Amino acid sequence: MLRQLIAGVGGIGLAVTLSQFPEYAQQYTQRLGGAVDELRVITEDFDRAATQSGLDRESALDRYEASTDSFLAERGDSMSRTFLRYEQLSSTLERIQGADPLQRLQSLPAYLDTDIGRRTLENYKPAVPVTMEGILYAGGGFILGYLVLSGLVRFFALPFRKRRSRDRIYRS
Questions:
Q1: Which of 3, 38, 50, 143 fits 55 for a cystine, CB–CB 3.0-4.6 Å?
Q2: Quick one: average pLDDT of 118-140?
Q3: Are residues 11 and 89 in the same domain?
Q4: Which residue segment(s) compose the domain that 101 sits in?
Q5: Residue of 42 and 27 predicted with greater confidence
Q6: Mind telling me which residue stretches traverse the membrane in this protein (predicted)?
Q7: Of 125, 141, 162, which marks where a domain is finished?
Q8: Same domain, 35 and 64
């Protein structure tokens, strides 16, 4: 009875925790989309200015790099990093938007390793899972939590069960 109670509490705890993942993924995707949109504006503005001067992006960056002015050279490096970040975040956004619920869960480490993932966690607002995905995560979490805690309780109770069995044999 105690094992079932502990396992049930564990199941409910993991159900609540896992049911929040779809909401976290949704909040992360919104933040990521916003970052991609802002980086797109910066990238398009840079490319437009370069084109108006008869240059492509690489040629414009080469001009920054060739400058003897350290400020301009550093701005060129900064813009190169901005373009790289835009490409990386755009690629991540495409992967997330095309992913099914299981693929999103498998990508969780990528969500946590980025600045956007950390900021999403810092500002995360829990939500009640009313989508099918949220309910499936909650159900999976309950089953997994129940089984894991039930197994742990059973494992840690083994030494005491053997003792009880021996005590019964000696009393007979």
A1: 50
A2: 81
A3: no
A4: 24-125
A5: 42
A6: 135-158
A7: 125
A8: yes
Instruction: Between 68 and 107, name the one with better pLDDT.
Output: 68
What pLDDT does 162 receive? Answer: 63
Same domain, yes or no: 55 and 87:
yes
Whether 117 and 156 map to the same domain: the answer is no
Whole-angstrom Cα distance, residue 135 to residue 20? Answer: 10
**Per-residue model confidence as pLDDT tens digits over 30-42:** 999 999 999 999 9
Is the same domain home to 119 and 52? yes
User: CA 29 from chain center: how many Å?
Assistant: 10
What CA–CA distances, in Å, run from 161 to 4, 12, 81, 168?
Answer: 16, 27, 62, 11
Residue 77 clears pLDDT 90, i.e. is over it: yes
Residue 68 makes CB contacts below 8 A (sequence gap 6+) with none
With a CB cutoff of 8 Å and minimum separation 6, the contacts of 147 are 7
Q: Which residue has the tokens 């755009």?
A: 90
Same domain assignment for residues 102 and 137: no
Average pLDDT for residues 138-158, to the nearest whole number? 82
